[in-house]
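Our preliminary data section would be incomplete without showing what the modeling component actually yields. Below, a chain of 277 amino acids is followed by its predicted structure, encoded as tokens that our downstream tools consume directly.
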Amino acid sequence: MSRFRVKQWHGLVQLGMSLFMGTGSAVEAGSLNVTIDAGRTQDPVTKYEYGMFIEPIGGLIARTLWAEMLDDRKFYYPVVAEGKDPPVPISVEGRPGVAYRKWRPIGGDDAVQMDSRDCYVGAHSPRVVLSGDSARGIRQAGLGLAKGKTYSGHIVLQGDPGAKVEIALIWGTGADQRRSVSLAAPGADWRSDSFEFVAGADSTDARFEVTGTGQGSFRVGAVSLMPADNINGWRADTTSILRTLHSGMWRLPRGQLSVQLGLARCTGPARPARAHV
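Predicted structure:
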């Protein structure tokens, strides 16, 4: 504790004692009788009265507590080849923000276009232009997997009926080192499909792919991948550790960041809310 704070607390204690004992200038001296009844107690303070606080520093929330495994799952950034990424935007603190994993095109740099028409969310959605039997799409690498663990998620698609879309979770180069799911043909309206994978091996650099063959194109509005045992979107393993602290409640993130996110605009119908959180 700093010297200033020590002096400050010392002064407050002196002031309190002087008023309590009747030595202040506004209180006349006199006798004081105090009775302490140790057997009489009040109602206990609720465990939710006090708690703990955590800062969203770097990837502390996104990597440690949040169960979501994919970064930029609503495509704030354009899907471009490595080396062509736009500069990282400035954070609310006035410095460059955290650089997360990026989506990359599959099938050539021209396979993916950022389409601003009738986006599912935000300013644009990636549109994959198909080329017959040659697979085209998007991928994100650097995912961690545990052998035998189940991972579940959903993807929001829209596109031409001639598109054959497949999603895959891949942890190696062999044909047996991947799990894939074929989706129903997309339509003119945005549609959400659920999926589930079981990892066949441990990995620290697995990748998630969305690819298509056939004719026309398809668009991806949003995609999510989490361990199936997540607790309302939070990691089960780290949540169990936090519970051992018996902290009552947690406050996150800090108030200023909540204001920047515009949380007041996140109420109402589900789809408008997704635009902000």
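The first helix runs from residue 3 to 21. The CA atoms of residues 53 and 251 lie 5 Å apart. Preliminary results of this kind motivate Aim 1 of the renewal.
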